[in-house]
Amino acid sequence: MELATLYNPHGVEERWQQTWEAEGLYRADDADETRPTYVIAVPPPNVTGALHMGHALNGTIQDALIRWHRMRGFNTLWQPGYDHAAISTEMMVERQLRTEGTSRFDLGREQFLERVWEWLHQYGGIIMGQFRRLGCSLDYDRERFTMDDGYVRAVYRFFVDLYERGYMYRDNRIVNWCTDCASTVSDLEVEHIDVDDTLTYARYPLVDGDGSVTIATVRPATILADVAVAVHPEDDRYKHLIGKHVRVPVVDRVVPIIGDEAVETDFGTGALKITPGHDPVDFEIGRKHGLEELTVIGLDGRMTGDIPDEYKGLTEDEAADKVVQWLKDNDRLEKREHYRHAVGHCDRSGTRIQPLVLLQWWCEMGDLARPALEAIESGRVRFHPPVHGRVAADWLRAIRPWNVSRQQWWGHQLPVWYCADGHVTVSETEPAACAECGAGELTRDPDVLDTWFSSALWPFATLGWPDDTRALRRFYPGDVDSTARDIIFLWVNRMIMAGLFELGDIPFHDVIIHSTILAPDGQRMSKSKGTGIDPLELIDQHGADSTRYGLLKMSSTQDVRFSSQQIEEGRRLANKLWNASRLLLMAGPETPDAQPSSEEERWILARIDATRQVVEDDLAKYDFSHAVDRLYHLTFDDFCDWYLEAIKPRLGDAQTRATAFAALERLLKLLHPVLPHVTEEIWTHLPGRESRLIVAPWPEPLPQETSGEIERAQTAARIYRRSGVRIALAGDAERIFTAVVRPSANGGGDVGKERDRLRKEIERGERMLANEKFVANAAPDVVDAEREKLEQYRAELDALG
RNA sequence: GGGCGCGUAGCUCAGCGGGAGAGCACUCGCUUCACACGCGAGGGGUCGCUGGUUCGAUCCCAGCCGCGCCCACCA
Description:
This protein is an alpha/beta fold. It is built from 27 helices and 25 strands. The radius of gyration is 35 Å and the shape is elongated. It binds one RNA strand through strand 8, strand 12, helix 8, strand 13 and helix 11.
């Protein structure tokens, strides 16, 4: 057998990736009515994206689960595909257009969309190839894209269903406007960042009588849009003023003083200027009190509307300076002070959010959230770790209307048409006439939907919904969703809501929230900061198996720092396995159906079976790092260091080899979900294995009767190695045990150290058992255990003489 | 402002009520015919700090000190 002494994954891995896929072994079978199904839909990466550490970890987790279930006989579907990533894709193409000196507005909508498709054909869709290189056994034949014709139909159906149930509506409300994206963004896409600001205190004189009310604001430019001043109704300083009026600086508008409990008495002056057009709190107060919603800042962030001419066209900052100057000049400025507070920024562009009142489409979420909340609270959907389920539930409880329309072109255009009279027609297909007045001239709403609106349908739109397909019937509901923490609200919760709304069932019963792998310095990996580590480079360097092992080893319920040590550990494991296999393969062929006859053989089978059990338990709990740790120690400590060393001299015996191959076979199966390539490669070298390991049956339980002899031999060997006596592990364990426990000719060396250790242990045990309070209060089994240990140590010390 | 999490060996992390663990790194000994990406042995820790509960605390409770994350309409 010509096998390199050093396992080289390169070439081997690519070959198996191609073979498995070509042989159709990744495929799910929707015609199969017999096997139970196991379904995971991959979180669809951005079509423009490249594999990063999060994808790699998540892909490995899902692949380990998929491979494990495939071996256990499940009809597994791991659904691949892409998300169109509306805003980020559009921004990328616009950036390219800018380098050409043009813009999407120059091109017009149709031409621009053509450019996006061209761009995607050229640069998009590379990540599935990268998943293949990781060894991910997705059913690539079923790749879906959220812009596929069928998927688009699903999106329209969802919209129409929501509209017909009264959840989707159009309204003028305050939105998060991003001047950089030139679009609204949802609340979830707003990041609150602390900024250094200035709080300006301005006096608003009372219309009748003397005096004034002082308000505090961080945005003096919005004074031009003030329509009221609000105070707390119980505030003794101000409550007598409610109903009176003040004059707004600069514009000299007369506005009322109103009472509202939303006003905090202990912040600023306790009096709040009300600008419903430019502040979310003020908007709510304004709606409650029927106030006008004036706009003085436009979509471009510049001053506009019914304002003095000298303000028109200024930026907000310029206008603010001008207002402050006016306040100074007119003795209305009380003071200005430094103020640090959190301000909403667009999480994509980093631009400060401009709250504006705009006519937008909204989705009322309360009725959708309720069943999803019930599913989480009842445990039908379980989060791992559970804390994320509690957070997800909290969000659902406090859910707010969702602004779903975006002022962009790339994405799913709203299935909404308007007639000349402004009547609304919502339809899955282009309507011939206005649903309300029958007018034939209709204009389609130019906006597109929030990307996450379509993502919410991923678990069933990928299966053909809204059509009643065989795949949908077979594979919905699915089983597991595995994803990063940051899209629990954006995506996970919405999939649960959408699944329950459209299909009446949860899309998955377990949600794995994997850890975030941080850069080695503890910071988040960031492309722009150059702190990202490219998983493809790791694969090139160490192979996919090693990378998978390392990522699983690193994974945890909490964030972890990346360390290449774990990947190298995986490489050593693959190499160790390779060489252990070489040892057996070089020894000669096996004899089938051999029964274990020696204690070592029964022992290793018992060890493998015990590890099978705990690994299954770990995987069922999605505890991957402990699972791979156990497999590592099974391979190194049990299989190689003890078992193979013990049987080495007897490898000439076909019976011995047969058991060894049987043990190796089981070991390879246990390792396959983590290290698919090296295990499959070794598998083909095993005599008589015609089928592929990827579809080989997962090992059944295999109970063994063992005597404890090996464990005693291990203890004895350790003692004697420590004492400086070199002993051979070859030969049967009982003889080793006898030899080392009653040292004779083999003996010698210094066992004093071991005696000291045992004496200390005995002393400790005696001390504990002499403590009456311990014996009286501790659990009886704990006390018994101490007694047994004490006996054990005494016996061992005795044996050492 | 509300919530969550973390501080354990030089590094990355397990353990979470009864003897401090793993891998790497380090020291020593082994070119032993599967593997030097190996084998064997070893050094290294007041388990952030201070109190409390307990026969017993790295583990539970409280406070403090550091670090991180999420949510959030105090202008």
